[in-house]
Amino acid sequence: MSASRLIYAGAEDWLHPHWREAFYPDGLPDDWLLPYYNTQFQAVYLSAARWQAASAADWAQWLDDTQPGFRFLLEPGTLPPPCDARIIVATPEWCDAHLWWLDASPDLRELARQASAHAASGEPIFVISCSGDLEKMEQVMTLSEVLGY
């Protein structure tokens, strides 16, 4: 997979209730949450239940609401995923090679080592917070900038 970025940071979903006060601007309409999220982060991980429940119209809107470099990581499900180059099915094998679960491994020094290894191969690493820990996610963004990735 070729990518324009080396580190893609994001969360599992963009609908975290605690983000209403801590992340999203006051009064932001629900249908503007994903476009706003995409101004700060480059990827989102969606559970199979979440993405399979989305209609074709939802997917068209989500793809339209995000920038070309944004990636949707999908937990494998029973339905075929939508067909788009920005959608990645996160199989266990793919996750082993490309996914860093931030909540499980918050050591940013180790993440920096992993990012350097990925830089050598040119393969991206996706750093995802299941809990939506904004502080840790911002630290990942800072790390990416400091490393030049």
Structure in words:
Helix content is 42%, strand content 17%. By secondary structure, the protein is an alpha/beta fold. It has one domain. Strands 4-3-2-1-6-5 form a 6-stranded parallel sheet. Strand 5, helix 6 and strand 6 form a beta-alpha-beta unit. The longest helix is centred in the C-terminal third of the chain and has 14 residues. The two termini are 16 Å apart.
Biggest β-sheet: count, sense, barrel?
A: 6 strands, parallel
The termini sit apart by 16 Å
Query: Numbering strands along the chain, what is their spatial order in the largest sheet?
Result: 4-3-2-1-6-5
Strand content: 15-25%
- By DSSP (H or I, 4+ residues per run), the number of helices equals 7
Radius of gyration: 15 Å
Uncertain parts = none
How many β strands by DSSP? 6
The backbone outline, from C-alpha atoms, is globular
Give average pLDDT, whole number: 94
Structural class: alpha/beta
The helix-strand sequence is EHHEHHEEHEHEH
The domain count comes to 1
Q: Work out the helicity level.
A: 40-55%
